[in-house]
Amino acid sequence: MDSQLYEIIFFIIFLILAGYLSAAEIAIASFGSQKLEELREKNDKTFPLFESIKQDANAFFGTIQISTNISLIAASVLAFIIAIRLINPLFTDSEIPILNQYSKLLSVIIAIVAVSFLTMVFGILIPKVLGFKYAEPIGKTSIRSLILLTALFKYPVRLVTYISNILLIPFKEKTNFSQTRISEDEIRILISEGVKSGSINETEKEIIENIFEFNDLKANEVMVPRTEMVAVDINDDDQENAKRIIKSGHSLIPVFEGSLDNIIGVIHTKDYMRSFVEAVSVSIKGLIRPAYFIPETKLISGVLKEMQKRGERIAIVTDEYGGTEGIITMEDILEEIVGELKDNTKMEVKEFTRLPDGKYYILGSMSIDDFNESFTMPVATSEEYNTVAGFIADRTGKILNSGEVYKYENLTFELIKKIRQKMVQFRVYSDDGSFGEKKL
């Protein structure tokens, strides 16, 4: 067996080892406290092993990372030697003078590109995608071998850590392998690769990406705007309030006194209906529960945590002056992650619906062609957009927030429902009331 064959064999071994370690690191790092608790409850044999690495997580993950880097370096060096040996003759034997003259330089450049691709894809990206997707089986399978590896490299890892800490003294930092985390960009890359390989489907990808965007959303970007709130005035006639509550179809209704800017609580529809059945006359005064108020600039991630902690299902969004801007429900927050939720108790949503005041609810997904064919006041068409939402985004250069309006000639488009970065529904009307459906 000649040296070239040995080089190829060892290259494959080191590449496989690097891939194995990369996948195992991602898999084991994903075992959080909840997953470990599940293993404990099931009396899983691997639970004590996962618990044992907590005693010196720095040494454990340090061993994996150092071993991975050594394997990648070894694989890269061997691959470079093999690539140079294969590529260089192609240029030195070429009849083209310039290729012959720069044969070594060209060989090195091509070898670097080829080696980088091989080690990055097969030694890092693909293993990390698999480790992320199949965390439990890979983690449980690899934990024993990695604990053994940690024991073997215990002192070399300590030496490397000690030297690193000395070099980091000017920066007032310390080496801590156990604090290694996957960045958002790395996860996005892993997810994209997972979709390409078929190990992650589009729905899973969408939910994960929504979670990243979710952390940046503010209350005023998700809320149902003030103009679309269903609320009752405590001073109104009980029968009128009863009609409004029953007609709304909502489980929670804000209660105000005199003005929407003076919300005094919320009423649960089930409480009202129970009292309605038990009594001839029902007053909402005795059924009001305290309202939960949040500022319009509060991040939705914080709103969700507080609502879970307090057991709230609805929050009143206020501006800097304490005025009511809108409301947010648990359903609104959930839709930001999983997409629009279908309600089987409601009628099928039409592309447009005429309101009693002559205004129209129009879906953002309605095509511009259908809009122009249906209504008396057409809007401009363009190859840049196909829908009403696309038209608004093109004209304004942004995604509107709930409650924002865009005026086009004599038309007013008011966004009343938004899910993530999708403008779902508008209220459309003209200032002079001339906007309406075409007569057939």
Primary descriptors:
CBS-domain, 12 strands, alpha+beta, Uridine Diphospho-n-acetylenolpyruvylglucosamine Reductase, domain 3, extended, four-stranded mixed sheet, 440 residues
Molecular structure report:
Helices cover 53% and strands 14% of the residues. The strands form three sheets. The chain has a five-stranded antiparallel β-sheet. The model has no long low-confidence stretch (mean pLDDT 83). It folds into three domains: 3-200, no CATH class; 219-338, CBS-domain; 352-430, Uridine Diphospho-n-acetylenolpyruvylglucosamine Reductase, domain 3, CATH 3.30.465.10. With 440 residues, it is α+β, with helices and mostly antiparallel strands.
Strand order of the largest sheet: 8-9-12-11-10
Q: Regarding quaternary structure, how should these chains be classified?
A: single chain
Tell me the count of domains.
3
Low-confidence stretches: none
| Portion of residues within helices | 40-55%
Main β-sheet description: 5 strands, antiparallel
Distance between the termini: 87 Å
Number of strands: 12
Strand content: 5-15%
Structural class: alpha+beta
Count of helical regions: 17
Query: H/E element string?
Result: HHHHHHHHHHHEEHEEHEHEEHEEHHEEE
- Rounded mean pLDDT score: 83
Please give the radius of gyration in angstroms: 31 Å
Shape field: extended
Outline of the structure:
This protein is an alpha+beta fold.
Secondary structure topology:
Layout: H1 3-29, H2 33-41, H3 47-52, H4 57-92, H5 97-101, H6 103-133, H7 135-152, H8 154-167, H9 184-197, H10 202-214, H11 219-222, E1 224-225, E2 232-233, H12 238-248, E3 252-257, E4 259-268, H13 269-278, E5 293-295, H14 300-310, E6 314-318, E7 324-329, H15 330-338, E8 352-354, E9 360-363, H16 368-374, H17 388-396, E10 405-408, E11 411-419, E12 422-430
